[in-house]
Amino acid sequence: MKILPGSAVTATTVVTRYRPCRIRILAALILTLSLPLSGPLLRAEDSPEELFKQGGTAFQAGDFAGAAQKFEAVLAMGPQGENLELILFTLAATYYNQKNLPKAEEYFKRVVNEFPNGKQKSKALVSLSQIQSQSGRKEEAAKSLEQAAQCGGDLGNRARFAQVSMLMEAGKTDEAVKVLKGLIAEGIKDDQSVQAAMALTEIEAKRGNLDDALKLLDRLQAASNIVDNPLQLDMLAVRIGDGLLAKGERQKALRMYAIVRPTDVVTGLQKDRIAAMEKTIADNKASLQTNPKAFMEVNAANARIAKDMEDLRKSLEQYAKLPDTTAAIRLRQAKAYDELELKWETILIWENLLQAKDPKIREDALFSIASAYCALVRPDDAVPALDRYLGEYPTGKYAAQAGFLKGAVALEAGDFAKAETVFSTALEKAPDSPLAGDMQFLMGNTQFAQAADPEKRDKYKQAIESYKKYLAKYPTGRFAEEADYRLPLCSFMIGGQDGYSKALEGFQAFVKKTPQSQFAGDAEYRIALCYNAAQKYDEVIKRCDEWRAKHGGEPMQAEVMALLGDAYASKEMPAESAAAYRKSVDLSDSEEVLKYSLFEANKQYQKINLWNEIADMFSVFAGRHPDHPAATAAVYWVSKAKIKDGKAEEAKQYLADTILKTINDRKKDAVEQLLAQLAQTCSKRIRPPLVAKEGTPAATPAPSTPPSTNTVAGQEPAPRPTPAPTPPYDADADFAKYLNEEKVAAVGTNSLAKARLRYAQAELSGFTKRPERQKELMASIYREFPADQLSAMLLAQCGEIALEKGELDKSEAFYKELMTSFPKSDLLEYAYCGMGEVSLARHQPAEALRWFDDAVEKANADAKIAQVTYGKGKAQLGMGKLEAAKKTFEEVAGNKEWRGEVTARALLSLGELEEKRGNTAAAIQYYQRVFVAYQRYPDVVVTAYLKAADGFIKLGEPAKAAAHLREMLSKPRLAQIPRAADARKKLEGLPAAPPPAESPATGSAPAPPPSPATP
Amino acid sequence: MMTSTPLPRVCVFSRRSALLCLIPIVAACILRAENVTTTDGQVYTNTTVRKAGSNVMIQVVMPGGGSMEMGLPIAKIAKVSFAEPPELAKASDAASSGNAADVIALTEAYVTKHGDLKEIPGSWWPQMARLRLFALASLGKDADAAALAREIGAINTPSTESLARGGALLGALASGDTAAVVVGAKALPSVGGDAGSALAQLALGRALLAKKDFAGAIRAFLTIKVFYPSPAMLQPAALIGAVKAYEGLKDDKRAARTLNDIVDNYPMSPQAPEAKKMIELLPKP
């Protein structure tokens, strides 16, 4: 192949691939055939065109001397302008091929010097640099390339690549990097910038600048759609990923490995690129049919593409020869994710490896997936995965671990029975496996855990057997000490005289044998508990004191102090008992113990009338644990203690002060509870003690103190003085002393505080039996305050008010705000339940059912569970699912804990359901149950009466219908309800009043009609 | 500049008549191009380009003055060197930090105005539209994303086709057809695919989340993290999806860890403020 020297600028070790300047001389020659050369008219055979053609033919035949002669002849004819430039360039190329480098250099220099803005300048400079480089004049070569690079455009960029190559060869990496950075300065957006980025990435990776390499690779990955050589990108990613992993930078390495695609995908992409290039070449050739003059450009372009295609083919061939590294890379990814405790990601990688169907890694993959699920505590996925592993590899290298994990995961998930079965089976199969000891011990634990079920108390005995077996076989095993401790613990849990006796003996032996054990503190605490069970309270007190001296600061100290409190309480020593409980409160980390000790101390303090201590204790508690569930109760007890202590004003002030601290905080749900408490406290006059307080208050005297301080032994107590008449009590005024608009404004002017004040006033109206005012105040909140300013409690209440008024959109807005702004609130169930009711009111039962289901699933409905279940029944009824609805209503009606209005409504709905089924008689029975048992709910009862009357009319028993309606109207509470008018109207068309008879509700329905009324 | 063409001449106009032609040209979206290279190697420099039917109309200056507009079939265009829109670099930067909102703002005008030229080799529209598609997907504007994916699909290359298929699933998601999303996502490779697969996994994750298949949703979202590190804009969207799935599984620990990842690694993403809010609401240890 004849080439111009520029094309030789391919030698490089670092730059993986770039497009050197390649100009096929043939193309250039043919082009010239179409160009008119200036000069006098000559004979055809001597014309410059003919001479140039002859030169071209000689050049093609490799006769460079002949070619040079012809071209020199053309030159001698004195061409001008572009023609001169072209002939100079052609001559330079011919001499280059003739290896006559001085001559070639001379003509290239003429091109550069005589045509500083010529078309051939950059090509000539690149070629010149080659000659200079070959002649050992590196500096000159570098300068020539620099000049070529400055020409810009495509060739300028190619010159820069050649520059990089030269700089790298000269060890001038920093300068090479600078040139490459210039090539990507405007982003990675075309083939040359991709190549530059790849080269730069490679250099940075080799220089150890992995972070820079990582950034570049990220950018390349983002531009992957224009990367011609996907193989190269993947290989770079692996290399950099490995480097990062070696440095322990797992997260970064993982980003690199993520770029790597499966072998078949990458080779497919590479083949696609090659095919696309082949097509381009063919298309280009075809285009010459219509435009033969473009031969030079087409030929040059095709030559470039062919070279690139060759490069791609070579790398594909090399890649095909290499072992498939995808699996190895995925394994590295899996390991890195596993070490980062990112188990879901680990599973994805292993599953991807499984798809490769490589038998060598299948076993590892199956087990790793299963163990990752175990780590995620997902027994539903872990157990099938472990079964799959054990199914395929029953005696595999992980078989024992898989069996162990299967039991462990069931244990972790709380499925103790299953765990026991798994461990037991595994132990039977492989009693001497390396994990047999662990399984034996854990089997004891599963039995111990199961024994918590009162119906499985015998499991404690089985646990004892398991622990004994463990100790017999593994006396120095890693769980030996714990098994030793658990043995008496089982006896302790069995309880009873025998149990405690054995436990005492066992714990004492354990403490003696291993006094430094981590279980020693617990064992000694349980020894004291055993004495407590035996009612040996002095021994308990002694043991607790010893425990404190020996194990003070250990986690059980709050429990020990609570036990001490119990012992003193049993000995009727309330002061000591209260002090011990109080200490327990101070020490406790456990919510359960904290609550227990707090309220036990409260009881003891009350026995000795130490209300000030109660106030102090709860006050400290509320201060320390403002978000504790018992914090509100604590505030209540503080206020109560103050009242008992004769400090009613102080109590109310305390409540008000506590409220004002958080009245502007939307997220504090307890504010409304405290407001209700203050309202209740202010709702009635607190009578001062009749007897003057002296030392301890007289209200709840301690058992050992005389009934009254002014009682003299052997004498009747003095008669009570007649109290002076007190002025009428004004609850509103009393409340306003502590909480009013002025005080609220002083702590903030937001709407929430005002709304909360109004809520408190509404509560006060409720406590002072003014329901209309209560309703009006609540309605004013709903009317005047925007939803996004209200607290969760107020939103819930406003939603209900709007719903009652039938303003469904408004109600929805309140509930939605509650859900959006308080996603973790305990009151969320009100929103879901309310939305269900809104949907029911909109006749969208399916939607309603979803809301009610969500109320249970998402909001863990508790306070509203009865209403939610009832709503669910209504939705099912609306959807025509009569059987499901019936079951749901029966569930509501049958639940004793829910008994109340919802029960009445459920019965009413059951009646409606029967009516839908055409069973009027059965429906009437349900209606009758409503007005017999639920008179407290007049709205429901009136509906039931009316429906029962309709039922009787339908059955053709108008007299009974009339009797029911009359009975209803005879009850003043029902008669005043607006809907009673319906009953009166209905009655007009029914038989007149019968003579006195028994209540229609008491007879079985439908009863025979009563006898006609006789005067 | 080459002045001859084998193709039919559409119109020749002088400076005087240029005004008459101006209105339809402006309306049809016209862009300057440094070079227009045809498949047969001809290069037309410093010209304007617009599309008319299946032809590309380019304007060339006549040697004797005046100019001529001529039509070339798109298939005959090897490449048009359009000037890179200045918004592209900014949008790319915003995209790499996951800042979908900025990407939306930066790409809106270009994608809306220059859709006509999307099929022309060398058009910047596919790159701008691609960025915009990921931004829309990231912001959960599923219907808009699906519409744009359809437009991208019209370019008809393997990568645009894949984007169109992935984007179409977002359309199904927007219309609540989660079953179609689940089926459609299987048609694209979950590993070893391209950005279209990443979009499909995002749609799948969201669909499974709606179906309360939390484990399935986690797998789909994390497939984007594990196998498709780019496009970066989909990462925070996938991670926030994973957080919701973790919450569904009551795995607060992983949810918290992932939320912190979003805040730390994609602070400019639309998901970062949401993540911060969610971190505040998480139960404190």
Number of helical stretches of at least 4 residues of chain A: 50
Order of helices and strands of chain B: EHEEEEEHHHHHHHHHHH
Structural class of chain A, please? mainly alpha
Largest sheet of chain A: none
Mean pLDDT of chain B: 83
Structural class of chain B: alpha+beta
Straight-line N-to-C gap of chain A? 135 Å
N-C termini distance of chain B: 73 Å
Total beta strand runs of chain A: 0
Query: What sort of overall outline of chain B do the alpha carbons produce when their principal axes are compared?
Result: elongated
Biggest sheet details of chain B: 6 strands, antiparallel
Strand content of the residues of chain B, in percent? Answer: 15-25%
Q: Note poorly predicted spans of chain A.
A: 1-42, 691-715, 1000-1015
Low-confidence stretches of chain B: 1-27
Percent helix range of chain B: 55-70%
Radius of gyration over C-alpha positions of chain B, nearest whole angstrom: 23 Å
> How many separate helices of chain B?
12
Strands of the widest sheet of chain B, in order across it, are 1-5-4-3-2-6
Task: Report on the architecture of this protein.
The complex is a heterodimer of chains A (1015) and B (285). With 1015 residues, chain A is mostly helical. Chain A contains 50 helices and no strands. In chain A, helix 42 (845-857) runs antiparallel to helix 43 (865-878). Chain A is elongated and about 145 Å long. By secondary structure, chain B is an alpha+beta fold. Chain B has 12 helices and 6 strands. Chain B has helices at residues 15-27, 86-96, 100-113, 125-138, 142-153, 158-174, 178-186, 195-210, 214-227, 234-248, 252-265, 271-281; strands at residues 9-13, 30-38, 43-52, 55-61, 67-73, 77-82. Chain B has a 6-stranded antiparallel beta sheet with strand order 1-5-4-3-2-6, covered by helices on one side. In chain B, a hairpin with a 4-residue loop joins strand 2 and strand 3 (43-52). In chain B, helix 9 runs antiparallel to helix 10 (234-248). The longest helix of chain B has 17 residues, at 158-174. Chain B is elongated, with a radius of gyration of 23 Å. Chains A and B meet through helix 11, helix 13, helix 14, helix 15 and helix 17 of A and helix 2 and helix 9 of B.
